Amino acid sequence: MPLSQAIINVTNLRLRTFIGFNQEEREKQQDVVINIEIHYPADRSFQTDDVADALNYKVITKKVIQHVEEGRFLLLEKLVADVLDICREHPSVTLARVTIDKPHALRFADSVSLSLEYQA
């Protein structure tokens, strides 16, 4: 059992993608705001101060950016599930949470969001 759980937070990653099933949504990219939380055991990285022993959030974020910006999604559920899968690829991840906001999806709301969570 690890002594120390590190928590990585990626806050308000703002990207553009094709999201939605209405004709206009399928033709024009929209803003999405992604928040990610990843937990992993950090005991070894504390001891060694070696990047090889840590979870590289830059690698994960680059994969998320590429997937979101190059993808086309009908449902927010699919987009969130795909991002969650990327976040939990590394075998040391013990918990991952992803929330994606679709700003201005509803006329009188700032945003609509959907969250999913994975726990090992």
Automatic annotation (TrEMBL):
- Which EC number(s) are documented for this chain? 5.1.99.7
Instruction: Tell me the enzyme class.
Output: isomerase
Q: Which GO terms describe its molecular function?
A: dihydroneopterin triphosphate 2'-epimerase activity
Which keywords has UniProt assigned to this entry? Answer: Isomerase
Which reaction is the catalytic activity of this chain? 7,8-dihydroneopterin 3'-triphosphate = 7,8-dihydromonapterin 3'-triphosphate
Family, per entry: Belongs to the DHNA family.
Presence of the UniProt keyword Lipid metabolism in the record: no
Pfam families associated with the record: FolB (PF02152)
Q: What is this protein called?
A: Dihydroneopterin triphosphate 2'-epimerase
The reply to whether Isomerase figures as a keyword in the UniProt entry is yes
Show the stretches that span the lipid bilayer: none
Domain of life (superkingdom): Bacteria
Ranges of residues in domain Dihydroneopterin aldolase/epimerase: 8-118
